[in-house]
UniProtKB/TrEMBL annotation:
The lineage of its organism: Eukaryota, Fungi, Dikarya, Basidiomycota, Agaricomycotina. The keyword Iron does not apply. This is Profilin. GO terms for molecular function: actin monomer binding. GO terms for cellular component: cell cortex; cytoskeleton. InterPro entries: PFN, PFN_euk, PFN_sf, Profilin_CS. Coiled coil: none annotated. It holds the Pfam family Profilin. The keyword Zinc does not apply. PANTHER family: PROFILIN. It is found in: Cytoplasm, Cytoskeleton. Gene3D superfamilies: Dynein light chain 2a, cytoplasmic. Keywords: Actin-binding, Cytoplasm, Cytoskeleton.
Length: 105
């Protein structure tokens, strides 16, 4: 399976994020105050915003959370479920974003 086919069928095609949710995330990188005041929605679930800036958005919903990181050409969205915690998930997602940025993606 090609990378694009994988993305189309398993990521974009999974329907996890609505168009409005995608737009709100992209706008949130340039206007983090919007995210900080209203939280972030993923798959219809609202996450309380812990932090937001022009690169990363972190959110929490009960014991679960989300790490969203922007690269040059992509936005990584990682939802972690308890017992995984932010200190375990964040470095992995941020590290992947750093790698993608380093290779021009």
């Amino acid at each position: 399976m090609s990378w694009q086919a994988y993305v189309d069928s398993n990521l974009v095609g999974s329907g996890k994020l609505s168009t409005d949710e995608q737009k709100a995330i992209v706008v949130g990188f340039s206007k983090p105050d919007n995210i900080l005041s209203s939280g972030v929605r993923l798959g219809g679930q609202k996450y309380f915003a812990l932090s937001a800036n022009d690169r990363s958005i972190y959110g929490k919903k009960g014991a679960d959370g989300v790490v969203i990181v922007k690269t040059k050409q992509a936005v990584l969205v990682a939802v972690y479920l308890a017992p995984i915690q932010a200190p375990e998930a964040t470095p992995i997602v941020e590290g992947l974003a750093d790698y993608l940025i380093s290779v021009g993606y």
